[in-house]
TrEMBL record:
InterPro entries: Plipid/glycerol_acylTrfase. It comes from Nitrobacter hamburgensis (strain DSM 10229 / NCIMB 13809 / X14). One of its GO terms (molecular function) is 1-acylglycerol-3-phosphate O-acyltransferase activity. The chain crosses the membrane at residues 9-30. The lineage of its organism: Bacteria, Pseudomonadati, Pseudomonadota, Alphaproteobacteria, Hyphomicrobiales. SUPFAM superfamilies: Glycerol-3-phosphate (1)-acyltransferase. Residues 73-187 form the Phospholipid/glycerol acyltransferase domain. Keywords: Acyltransferase, Membrane, Transferase, Transmembrane, Transmembrane helix. The keyword Zinc does not apply. This is Phospholipid/glycerol acyltransferase. GO terms for biological process: phosphatidic acid biosynthetic process. Pathway: Lipid metabolism. The keyword Acyltransferase applies.
């Protein structure tokens, strides 16, 4: 465990140090087309994946990318870690993320989010905010972009009971596009609320798309079953691997 602690320390120092460098390097993109900034962010995501593999021994496997339709689509992903916020960005063609509005207020980082066309949501505004969110998502997807949404709204510990929100169903109904569920097990290697980073394999699996036009109850039922079933299998496989690698499985802090 001493080795994991030291590797995590080195990784976190380099992660935040190089983040500052990437932020400065991206400054010229403020006066360039949005695609230039998107290219820089994708490169930053790939850099972090490489950094984590080299320092922490964390590998990445991506499954099912052939299931992502071309053009407008909703990517509805399990959310266990900060890892998927940059990793999914580097995997999606023209991504838009839904995120909490407060992030757009941060100097530089928030300005980049606005430049990249991300959608900030006021989570305290209730239905009014959700309707505005759905309208903005619809406008962006009509331009050919692909929406990434975390249906549970926030990171959840590995193994926690599912807590899907109704917002994803509203966006799905308003936008009338397919929805690709995504399962992952990132929380085993990058747990939330701890600076420790663990060796192992993060697996992301894009699952069979749900067609547009499903009734709300059926959509939520199929989405939840698809994500939770596949995530459970990925987590179990990841735990077996980590037990072989270092003898125990990390536990994420509870709510």
């Amino acid at each position: 465990m001493t080795s994991i602690f030291l590797r995590s320390l080195v990784f976190n120092v380099l992660f935040y140090l190089t983040m500052a460098i990437w932020i400065v390097a991206a400054l010229p993109t403020f006066v360039m087309p949005r695609a230039a900034l998107v290219g820089v962010v994708k490169a930053w995501g790939r850099w972090n994946i490489w950094l984590m593999r080299v320092i922490c021994g964390t590998r990445v496997t991506i499954l099912g990318t052939g299931r992502i339709p071309k053009g407008p689509v909703i990517i509805a992903s399990k959310h266990q870690s900060m890892w998927e916020t940059f990793a999914l960005f580097s995997l999606i063609d023209q991504p838009i993320f839904i995120l909490k509005r407060e992030l757009t207020w941060l100097p530089f980082f928030g300005w980049y989010l606005m430049k990249a066309g991300m959608i900030g949501i006021d989570r305290k505004a209730g239905m009014r905010s959700l309707k505005m969110l759905a309208r903005m998502a619809q406008e962006q997807m009509h331009r050919g972009r692909q929406l990434v949404i975390f249906p549970e709204g926030t990171r959840r510990p590995v193994g926690a009971p599912p807590a899907y929100k109704s917002g994803v169903a509203l966006v799905y109904a308003e936008c009338e596009v397919p929805c690709v569920p995504v399962a992952l097990n990132s929380g085993l290697c990058w747990p939330r609320r701890t600076f420790l980073r663990y060796p192992g394999t993060i697996t992301v699996e894009f699952l069979d798309p749900l067609p547009p036009g499903l009734r709300r109850a059926e959509f939520m039922s199929r989405l939840t079953a698809s994500i939770e079933g596949a995530t459970g299998s990925l987590v179990e496989a990841g735990r077996r691997e980590q037990a072989r690698l270092f003898g125990r499985v990390p536990n994420a802090p509870a709510d």
